[in-house]
Each structure stands twice: as C-alpha cells, then as structure tokens.
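This part of the workshop introduces the protein records we will be handling. A record pairs a protein's sequence with a compact description of its fold. Comparing a sequence with its tokens is the quickest way to learn the format. The record below serves as our worked example for the rest of this section:
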Amino acid sequence: MAATNDAEGYVGPGAVRSAHEVRMWREVTTPEGAVIHLRIADASERAAALLIDAAVMLFTLLIGGLIILLAMSASDGAWRDGGTIMFNLFFFILRGFYFTIFEMGRHAATPGKRVMKLRVVAREGRQLTANAIFSRNVMRELEVFLPFTYLVSGGGGDVFDSMSTLLVLIWLGVFVLMPLFNRDKLRGGDLVAGTWVIRNPKLELAKDVSATNTIDAGDEFQFTETQLSTYGEHELQVLEDVLRASSEQVQKAVAERIRQRIQWEAASGESDRAFLEAFYKALRKTLETRMLFGKRKKDKFDTGSAP
C-alpha cells in the first residue's frame, strides 16, 4: 500500500517509521467488507486529552460553583444547605455526562480528544453504539472519580482508614496505568464497551481525500435523493477510511457494492476512486444539510429520519 502523509500527522500503514508505529496500527474488516487501517492512540495522547477535559470540567465546575455561591449570598444564607446539595449534584451530573454527551456526538470525541485529534470507535469494524459509550463512561466513575473523591475527602486517621486509603491508591494506580500495559492502550471502560481510541486526522475533503484525482467528479456524477438516502453517518465514516487507507482492490470492491445497492449503472471506463469520491462528497453534503434541520440518519438501517 502506498505511503500516505498529511499536515495533520497522518502516516499510513505503508509509511510507518519505527517498531512502535508498527505496533500501533490495526487492520479491521467492516461489515461492508472494507479492510481499513486504524492507528491506536498512544497512552500519552490519551493522558493529554484527559488533562484537557479535566481542565474544561474544572472551569465549568468553578463557574457553576460561583453561580451557586452568588445565589446563596443573595438569600442571606437561608439556602446554604441547599446550595451544598446543588453543588454536589452539579458536580455529579458534570462528571457523569460530560464524556457521554460529547462522545455520542458526530465527532465521537470530547473537547480534549478533538484537540489531540482522537476519537472513539468500536473494535472490529462495528458501529459505535450509545450503549458502548455509556458503558465505557460508567466505568470511568469506578476507575477514577469515586476513588479520587475518596482520597480528596481525606478519610480518617485510624489503622482501618489507612488501609482503606492504601487499597484505594492501589485500585486507582491499576486502572490509571492500565493503558501502559496492553497493546491496544485500553482502559477498563474500553475493555467493557469493546471500544478503541484512535488517532483521527482532520478531514479536509478538497485537500486530503479529493486532491489525488483531477477529475471534476461533481460534473461527471449526479446522484438522486433516493440514492443518497440509502446510507447514513456510519457508512460515510467507513467510506472516508476506505478513501484514506485502502488498496485499489478494496476500493473497487466497495465501489461495486455501492453501485449495486443504489442501482448505479457505471459508464464505460468509470474510475472506481472517482465514483467513491463523488459519492462521498454528495453523501456528506446531504447528511450535513439534513442535520441543519434536526434530521439524522445514523446508518443504512436507520429509517426513522429518512426523507
């Protein structure tokens, strides 16, 4: 496979430059039959993303605490106990739903992951589900937040509490350091949910995916609304990966599968890559337009929001 590089640091599997890079690449076959290559995120990249998210959460918590404090001051202390309860509830909601809400979004990434150009994906080419995202983030509460809260609270001073603190430190250390000691850099939540965190180079359609072909695909290929409604966001992501990091044989197989499904009659000498690029552009534009009106099509099986 030809080497692939771009300004965002994407290095294709044919251009790996060290034994470490070789170990970080994974090859998976999607349900659509496409073989794609994914680059697992380093433990350091994941740690940096978590620190950024922690800073965002801390800033949000401080703003929320300040608002609650101002409300308590305005009530002359009459709602002091209620203010404490509200602050603890706000903190629980923040840490419980911050990661889940962002990872359920289109980018499958929190602000920290987006800064580090990472995203969450399902292992073995499966579609990332809400259940998987919820599971991996519930585990974070057990892995990090609950033991950390216990340590911050200070515990007690007797022997029993000292032993409890030691056990909590061991628990926290095991889960925090887990990504360092497995080849896929998985934490406990990833093991439970069946997910990976991968490096996700920024997609600039005109420069990255389409620049390799000089054909003006928009004039050569015209797709109907019915044809474009066949696929959803999941298939769009798979097609992006196929265009980025797959062989000509894989692109040919995927192009034939799409043509068959949308009943497209290929013209004589039609380029498989040009067809895939044109279909990618049209499908992405269609899905983004529909999202502006609050309509989403998650995958080809999603009929609830189809036109």
Q: What stands out?
A: The beta strands are 25-29, 35-39, 118-122, 195-199. The mean pLDDT is 77. The chain has two domains: 43-199, 217-292.
